[in-house]
From TrEMBL:
Descriptive protein name: Ig-like domain-containing protein
Domain SbsA Ig-like stretches: 188-293
Keywords attached to this entry: Signal
Amino acid sequence: MPVQSGFTENTAEHLIFDAGAFYKNYNPVTGVGTLIGATRGGGEFVAKPTIRPIEIDGVKGRAKGLNVIDAWDVSIKANLIEITPEILRVALSTGEVNTTDPVYDVVTAKNTIEIADYIDNIAWIGRLSGSNNPVVIIIYNALNTEGVTLTTADKAESVLPITFFAHYDASDLDTVPFKIYYPKLSTDTVNPTVVTVPADAATAIATTANIVWTFNEAIQPAAVSPANFFLMKALDGTLVPGSLALNAARTVVTLDPTANMTAATAYIATVTKNVKDLNGNALIDNVITNFTTA
């Protein structure tokens, strides 16, 4: 029987919320990019093909199978309320910022567009109601070709609209220059687990050793930070500085101390319950590992 509404029990999981955020040179694998700035009025993504119907004598209208795509118009628009010299530089396409003046950053523009003026990508990051992972829309080889229009008004803040247009790359003319990363919805509610090396209560650990946490499933890259993975001396809680690395599979985090650990000393390695898997399930509790160096 026909229904009178498209609303189903799954509708609530497929809603895109809020204005989202805009990034330059976003890496969808690591989740790292350069935040462009705050917006008001959000933005807009356009991926519009120019479709031309092929006319055939004797055919009275459009015919199935006789449409061709002549071009794609792909863009992302951001309505920026935060306006900085860097944002103005990007908006001007060929903009440059001179920081040598002691009072002002001086923004100018060139008369020619160079390859370096194209931005590798512009990304919009939004929130899907049914997932802890974001919706990500990326356009490639981006350039604003509309210039800057900055409108001011009494008792109001200026908003700078920037429309970044995607461009084909000469090395890959068959790929339309955008991608939409739509998170898979999952019923996974199982908490991740982790194994730490050195193991708890281990002794005679080399002072040159790294701390390695191995998870049973991929974790969210944003959680890999000194706030969630750290090493300290057991005696006084002194934090041990070092660098963190996440492997490509997102399952192994390595802490490489900046300097060798102290000999014959007790240490505590901690990973916090703020670490989550790709479906948003967190560690049940902080995982604390005690060990002693040789």
